[in-house]
Amino acid sequence: xxxxxxxxxxxxxxxxxxxxxxxxxxxxxxxxxxxxxxxxxxxxxxxxxxxxxxxxxxxxxxxxxxxxxxxxxxxxxxxxxxxxxxxxxxxxxxxxxxxxxxxxxxxxxxxxxxxxxxxxxxxxxxxxxxxxxxxxxxxxxxxxxxxxxxxxxxxxxxxxxxxxxxxxxxxxxxxxxxxxxxxxxxxxxxxxxxxxxxxxxxxxxxxxxxxxxxxxxxxxxxxxxxxxxxxxxxxxxxxxxxxxxxxxxxxxxxxxxxxxxxxxxxxxxxxxxxxxxxxxxxxxxxxxxxxxxxxxxxxxxx
Length: 302
Fold this sequence. Notes:
- The chain is α/β, with parallel strands linked by helices.
- The chain folds into two domains: 6-210, Rossmann fold (3-Layer(aba) Sandwich); 221-296, Alpha-Beta Plaits.
- It contains ten helices and 13 strands.
- The strands form three sheets. Strands 5-6-7-3-8-9 form a six-stranded mixed β-sheet, with helices on both faces. It has a four-stranded antiparallel β-sheet with strand order 11-12-10-13, with helices on both faces. Strands 2-1-4 form a three-stranded antiparallel β-sheet, covered by helices on one side.
- The protein is elongated and about 70 Å long.
- The mean pLDDT is 91.
């Protein structure tokens, strides 16, 4: 693959559950080596998207390419080369111990590295001789992390990877994941409701709502183009007559002040405020997590 190759591509991707749309014409281009923070409320289509990419669910229309292959035609080959950490996992051989489960998993991953699997298990305090059915939710999650990473796949699909982990292990998993990405350069789609935990790793933000893409943009571009601003009416009781096109979210309002997240430059906001009876107070950068939250609210513009 070239430097600018696309690891995941979708065009007009659609999926329905009965009459309910889960994905409605999703277009994506995920560059190879990027780490995409995928956020959205429950039912936004995040889990469905990952399952369609792996051909664990068939799409109802559109085009999909994963690592240059079609999931519908080469799903088994794609799954062997992807590290998938599902939101929920029902294992049919629950009486197996963890070591046997991982060895079984390794049979379908040609690049499985047993020494790396052992290293990850030790770092996560994972008891390899414990029966899978005896594992707590957090212990099961740790085993799944090992299964997703140990074959050093070129693509990781992670669905709530820290769900069920205690704070100490959560920090350890995030640290191991950051080290893994630095070493392997794996393309990653990281689905989470805990926005702040992965924003430091992400170089791209994907916001889904009701099966549609609300935002798909690089983190550096978002930091360059989004601001949190404070504005004050120049006269008592004055309000802006027209909401500006650059307003993404109104975070708060009192009689004496507006707090907005905007997609605009400092000079643009100042010029608009001067012509709208408002005083520009100040502006500051917006975190990736707060940008995502702004686009998830009803006031967020596509």
